[in-house]
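Thread title: Can someone regenerate the structure for this chain?

I was given the following input by a collaborator and told the matching structure tokens would be attached. They weren't. Posting the sequence so someone can regenerate them.
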Amino acid sequence: MIMGHIGYGGVFDKWIHAFHMPMFFFVSGFFWRKRNLRELVKLKAKSLLIPYVCFGFAQLVFLSAFSSGYRTLKPVKLLLTNNTDGMQPVPGALWFLTSLFIAEIVYSLIRHLIGREWIAHMVVCLTVLCGTVIPYYFRLPWGADTAFVGIGFMHAGCLFREKKYLSKLLQLKPVPACILGGGTTVLIFLNSSVNLRAGQYEVVPLFWINAIAAIIVGWNLARYLEDVLDRMRWSRISLWLKSIGKNSIVHLCLNQICILVFRKAFQLIGITGIIERILLLPATLGALFVAQQLICGTRLRIMIGRYWTARST
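Best answer:
Regenerated them for you:
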């Protein structure tokens, strides 16, 4: 996600946009559990909507000090309504929080209200179809149309956890995983550029094949990386990577503003082009690590909904 926001060029951007946001929905579905709907809404509002409001308005206030474009009501209107368009570069990434909130609630409703599995499959497919078609005509508030497509990836993640024949695909050996990765990369470049946020899917069946296959490859590569780090006793790197996953909401909410600040700083001292893009990644990750410690380790964790969650349990 961070590398995609830095922008390493058309080829890399086309490749990573084919699967990186679908993967977030897939992982959410993999860890999905049936809960009381009222408790689910309360939980997701705390963990997703509170950060959306806090980080969204905080970034708009910050940016208004440097750009007159943020001193109007338009950015506020976009933040509260159509947050998948016109919000670039900051706080554009926040669309995912509202989209995931809608996807979590709608998917849970489907699983609660529909007992027969095959009917649930059909309803998910129809929901995905609606989410795919709607952006050709108009966009729904809070990324709801993207959420409908995301429900398909959530359902896939849930099935990969529940079905043994699918879960085996998440336990591939290195050689089959690399072969699948190579084939998937070829197919990604056969399709035109896709973008989940913008509702651009191009050849839809190819989009789904590429996204699911790349998610499988990425999942297995993450397992291999964890094993290698454990065998080499690089526990600090492993713990750091796991902390990013645990506190991914901080990285999602703040990565673009960190990139923007560092990009401006590098340009002021004459660093541009490929050198700038190379330096942006470690600089942004370092700043996000500091932000993670500051927010998650202090009362500022209220911004990510954890203070209230802790008090209510």
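Residues 309-313 have pLDDT under 50 and may be disordered.
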